[in-house]
Amino acid sequence: MFQPELHVDKNIYKKSFPKFDKPKVIGYINIENVKYISKICEDKVNLDLNLHIDKVKRKPVDLDVKLTELLKFLLEHEVRLNFPIQNKLNDAQFFCYRGLMTCLACTPYENKDPWEIVAILHKGNIYLCARETPDKKKQKMSMSERDKQCTSWGFKFEQYMLSDKPDTLPNPDLPVDETEEFSLVMTTKLNDHKIVYGAEMDGIRCDKLPVTSPPDTNDPEAIIQYLSSQQFIELKTNRHIEYSRQEKSFKRFKTKKWWLQSFLVGVDTILCGLRNDNGIVEELKIYNIRDLPKMSKGYWDPNVCFNFLDTFFTFVKRCLAREIKRKYGEKILNNIQGLPLLSLHFSWSPDNAVHVSDHYCHDDDPILHEWFLQNFGKLRNE
């Protein structure tokens, strides 16, 4: 049994920004839910985010987000994507969601929320999935009506701004369905780490160039070409900032998360609805992603965030290598395709190091579904 640790002190990661390739679109999930925005400007408005809130369709509170949608995508598009079969651990690809990378990159500055992540090595790939901590589960199950209302306000703002087609207007006079999502699947490299990740996207910009709907075809390459040529925007809501304490909190926490979410998918603009406590958006404000680190200087540093993210990926590979050598011997490190499924559990809480254990049991809490385990890679082996 080994207990290596990864230290999180932000001073360790204050070095030059690591090499990060421009994210490339390789797929999509639920293209029927893609949205568009035609008006992007700073303006005084009066948008009631409580409109039809009594009829909103919310996600189930106990919904345990795993990798299901990403796994379905990988299985359906395995032949088209034709990922190389890797036998060495250092060449393994990571599969995850953007939210997990955002959470990890925020870690050196996080002082409140712990996290838990499971890493699974299967057929030469590493799957990363966030697990809810006991406190998070308790908090989720005991959400107040006010918490639910604030969550719904964000979705309603999107409905005010986004339309179903490039040439139609938004229609907020409908209840919001919070389960509707459109995601891109992207790939990039962070130093030597190859990463494939899903990311929910808000909308396509129609304010600069004429935009058409996606091509009416079953050919994924044509749709990917269409999506790759578009500019996306991120939509946010935030309470009006009236006091220095609110401004400090905004610069310390929100701008960091907003920058990471957008930078990881190549989005350069955020349209924010500034609201009051009653859920009325009174002003639209535009944030350029490149300006967020400058306006928040002294609160967080992009270099620290991405260097920690890079170091965590290296740490995962190192821990898996240790576990493989412990169980199967060093020679198998050059033939990881032949290994049975192997999983490790990583956990972190503020003011502590990242800990790893082999206590996670995939059979008790399956992240990779049986239909995926039985079929992914099967076509290549035949």
TrEMBL record:
Its cofactor is a divalent metal cation. It is found in: Nucleus. Keywords: Hydrolase, Metal-binding, Nuclease, Nucleotide-binding, Nucleus, RNA-binding. InterPro entries: RAI1, RAI1-like_fam. Residues 33-341 form the RAI1-like domain. Its main location: nucleus. It is an enzyme of class 3 (hydrolase). Its EC number is 3.6.1.-. One of its GO terms (molecular function) is RNA binding. One of its GO terms (biological process) is nuclear-transcribed mRNA catabolic process. One of its GO terms (cellular component) is nucleus. Signal peptide: none annotated. Belongs to the DXO/Dom3Z family. Decapping enzyme for NAD-capped RNAs: specifically hydrolyzes the nicotinamide adenine dinucleotide (NAD) cap from a subset of RNAs by removing the entire NAD moiety from the 5'-end of an NAD-capped RNA. This is Decapping nuclease. The lineage of its organism: Eukaryota, Metazoa, Ecdysozoa, Arthropoda, Hexapoda.
